[in-house]
Amino acid sequence: MLGILVLGGWLAHLLMKVIELRRIEPTVSLFNYLRGHPYVVAYSAIASAVAGVAIFHYGELTPLMAVGVGYMSDSIMDKITSRTELAVR
Fold first, then answer.
1. Could you tell me what percent of the chain has a pLDDT over 90?
2. Assessment of whether the complete model's pTM goes beyond 0.85
3. Which pLDDT belongs to residue 86?
């Protein structure tokens, strides 16, 4: 159940990101975002899973924390990729 909550938090942030992008560009969809950013999405999903397992291992993963781990893993990836894009420019 905790794994599903981690996944739910991750998906919630991913969906929120696509909704925000659609405000700027109405042709953006979840599927073309996933196709256009496969490495960012994969890294974010892996980070969510690893963080969830690590916190679970120490007995600290509550249902609320599980949702937060998933949500924040995708959010952190947004910050990292934004900084990387700025550094490359």
1. 75
2. no
3. 61
| 1 contact partners, CB below 8 Å, separation of at least 6 | 63
Cα 16 to Cα 3: distance, rounded to the nearest angstrom: 20
- Contact 68/5 with Cβ under 8 angstroms? no
> Which residue in 47, 53, 50 sits closest to 74, CA to CA?
47
Domain residue ranges of the chain, discontinuous segments joined by +: 2-88
What is d(CA 71, CA 68) in angstroms, rounded to the nearest whole number? 5
Asked if residue 25 lies in contact with residue 74, where contact means CB atoms within 8 angstroms, the answer is no
From the centroid of its chain, how far is CA 72? 7
pLDDT in tens, 40-63: 899 999 999 999 999 999 999 999
